[in-house]
Amino acid sequence: MDYLRSFGSAAVSTLVQKSGLNLPFSLGAKVYSCETFWTLYDATKREDGSLVSVFEYDLTHPLNKSTIPLARNSLRKLRTIRHPDVLRYIDVVESDSAICIMTERVRPLHLALSQSSSNVPREREDWLIWGLHRISVALAFLNDSASSTHGNARPNAIFITPSGEWKLGGFEVLSNPKDDLSVIYTMGGLMPDAMACAPPEVKKEGWSALKDVPVSAADGYALGLLLHAVFNPTHPPLPTAQPPHPPPQVSSRGAIPLSVFPSFKKLLNPNAKSRMSPKNLLDIGMAESGGEGHGFFVHNRLVKVCAGLDGFTLSSESDKASLLRTLKESASSFPPEFVSYRILPCLASALEFGGASAATIVPLVLQFGKNVAPDDYGSVVVAPLVKLFASADRGTRIALLDSLPEFVEKLDKKTVVDKIWPNLQTGFTDTVAVIREATVRAIVLLSPKLSDRILNNDLLRHLARLQSDPEASIRTNTCILIGRLGPSLGYNTKRKVLVPAFSMSLRDSFVHARVAGVMAFMATAECFEIEDVASKVVPAILGATLDKEKLVRDQAFKAVELFVKRLEAHASTMPETASTEDGGDDLPARLPGAYTQAGLVNSATGAAAALTGWAVSSLGKKLAPADMQTTISSTIEGSTLTPTINGSANHLPVTPVSPSANPVRSKGLQLGGNKAPTSTLADEVANEAGQGRSWNDDLIDINADEGDWSAFESAPPAVESKLASTTDGLGFGISLRPSSPIPDEWGAMASSSRPTSRSSTSRPSQISRTLSPQPRRSIVPSPLAPAFSPASSTRSTPISSPRPLPNTADNTPPTSMAGMSKEEKAAEMARRKEERRLRIEKLKEQKKNAAAAGKV
């Protein structure tokens, strides 16, 4: 009750209160009332929510008691008579107080006539003739097939559906002469304003006179009056309707077409036996030839279209093509309601059941859809097209995908995810390449309406397969699609997918696929982290700069320029140096001049020269003052040096393994030959010490090892190995290790600058041993010697740690990790790290003790 009252109709509430019934529909607003006889309501069917109409006969009204048999007759006839042009019965609710007949949604003819008065005259005439054709068909069916007389064919008995089609109702006096329950002969006069459409014989002798005339006589006369009423709604009633019933004059034709007027006069013939019947009017109107006054139905556009749509699936291909051509040419002239509810459903049905070429019909559906009201577009146009995505016909699928741009904006996200995507994704694996490619192109339009799960999972799996498709165009379009989807992908998906996908396209054999890969990198430039740009993106594109095709090379250089500018912009915001744990504040002071901002080089030759000078000069800067006067071979002399403290060196004895070896003066490369005098170097060291540089500055960099911790388990490397490892560790393939015997002039340079007091204890250099094999010597450290190497203590260059030389191994070789399991290797590495840490701590402690002793 409350739900019904919400519609604002007091009459509806009263109706339900009187009936006390549980209605199968929800009543809406009142539409029309035929005096007190019946009332028309809009309604909604509770079962499925479809729109319906309800005719309510109020049996309790005092004026309606005598017409109750007419109401029951109308119900009985509607139940039993089914015809496309007759009002369609759905359900009924009966009680002692009311009869509620539920039918399809309709509105009275006179309301439709008033709304169509502003239409173009030609279109209005076509619509009226089409409507009269439908009523003629319905009356002919009742007269001939049902052998009955309608007896009430007037404007308030005709209703218009949402599609604009005319439907015949008003069955209150519909009677068969052979039926014992016929009411027209005894109760025809009880209808409201019954004599307005009564034929002359009835006005003269009463309704019983119809028993002696053809069953179509009364309906033919009423059809003539209806024809005049619809074409001339503002004209007064015709004089021929009153005695002595003169024939209609040409002056009274009004808007009635000339082709229809001869038949109009025959319908109003006062003689019932000579009067034209609805069936005869139909035959004349459908005649292809016959002269003037014939063919007014068959040549009507709407009549032809409806006839073609009704038999579309059974028509020949030529008839189908002719109908579709007519529809395309006249699309803009059809009434909007006719397009929405008559043409479009028939075309969609033809597509669904394979009635015609989808490539022709789908564009036609969208063309007609432009004239559909926005509120109806979803149900009239979009819903049938979405349903067609489930079709297995490839022609239908390709037509839908090609026309997708025209209706994609009308699709909501739920429809795309739930109804379109499950069927659309089958196109990615279709055996026909055209379907696969059209599916890829369609994703560009549908991607904003796809869910995150589909975008980041299901879709990318399909696209990964398509990147290996045999068709080059599909591979190219797939790369372009991934590039367009990039900004909408999830953060983790971008990092995992984009670079591998675009890199795969750069390796494609099809030139345009490679171009697409480069352009995709550029289009998604903002999707990459700056670290990924430097480590992944730029290296991936650089290979394309030497592509065999100039088109690819040019695009690759543009891409490299784009990303390099981005890197430069980011680098300009970074600090000049990053602080380090030990001595980070004075790092710029220790950088060689060639690697400062002022020392940048612009050529390969300059870079090589600067690199060599940097390697040698940085090594010389960090040597202790005492070591500056020794040769590389001094590490195998009879004594070694302890770490330099305040410019002094402590000599520790070393017992050689082979005492019989004759000492040989080395002619190897000497680092002290070109150095400044000892006093000057000592002053520099003192100045550095005065600037607050701690001993820890000279410690080795514990983070500089290249993943091989075995170097810290062997004996301290000799000084000469430091030069070799220094040059090898630059990473550019430049080595200062000589590949041929050292010339004598290098020896002369060394001897001229080396103190004579140390020459007697020198031994062959490590470099000379590398060039000419010598007997292997092992060094046994003295128990008094500290467990660290002077060479290690003076190392602070920014290059990687030296690798251990095979001839400088300790008596206890490091444990080999070959054949170890992953867990055993981890344990061994942990052990070595701990042992190395202990050595460094011991080194620091010894330095502290030595410094304290020096002060004392």
TrEMBL record:
Residues 766-775 have a biased composition (Polar residues). Coiled coil: none annotated. It comes from the Eukaryota. GO terms for molecular function: ATP binding; protein kinase activity. Residues 734-836 are annotated as: Disordered. One of its GO terms (cellular component) is cytoplasm. Residues 1-297 form the Protein kinase domain. SUPFAM superfamilies: ARM repeat, Protein kinase-like (PK-like). One of its GO terms (biological process) is tRNA export from nucleus. InterPro entries: ARM-like, ARM-type_fold, CIK-Related_Protein, Kinase-like_dom_sf, Prot_kinase_dom. Residues 751-765, 781-802 have a biased composition (Low complexity). Residues 821-836 have a biased composition (Basic and acidic residues). This is Protein kinase domain-containing protein. It comes from Suillus plorans.
